[in-house]
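S.,

Sequence below, as promised.
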Amino acid sequence: MGWFKHWFGTRYYAVLYGHRDEDDARRWVDAILDRWRPASGVALLDLACGRGRHAAFFAEAGLRVTGIDISAASIEEARRNVPNAEFAMHDMREPFRAGTFDAVCCLFTSLGYFDDLEDDKAVLRAVYTALKPGGRFVLDFMNTAKVIRELVTEEHLTRDGIGFALRRTLEEGVLVKHITVQDGPECHRYEERVQALTAEQLEYMALEAGFEVEDRTDGPMPTPFDREHSDRFVLWLRKPRT
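The prediction came back faster than expected:
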């Protein structure tokens, strides 16, 4: 099922990315709500929802939230953390409840995990199918051009007493992060592989799936995307009404 199936559900993933805290999630959710101004009770799909970090704030704002993720462990934790939302284990390449949702979000570089770009295109088609006509989709991805230009090849971190050695490489168009975990006497090895999709590729794939582009920003705030300087590439999309 891919590297993500074995890595995302581990406690080490949660420890390594624990700095992506509630304040970060709230900033994203507040910015999305401010831009879209959804009515209370609209249906939102949180794609690759993980442990429900963003879902919690969407639900708190009065949206009917459904989160899907391929990791059973993440879904179990999300259900405990966010009892006022619905969660399901689901492969985001497959259609999910066609024509049900007013909005979909895909945050924290949750695309590009597959070996074949056709799989990523399938994700976009599945989102398009899940949305009602006029529904909106926000896709958050790294600014690949800047990441490659400023790639930190070696990094050593300690979080909660656990050591992480990170080695980053670019291998045939794929950004690979080799992760060695030292937890006391235990040593574990994991890997992250993300297609080095450019902003142009992502936008073309979105248009090919049928979306209209409303905006392109750097992160959740309404700062225009700049290929040279932006940290993130965020596409704000809409499914046409007809």
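The mean pLDDT is 94.

Coffee later?
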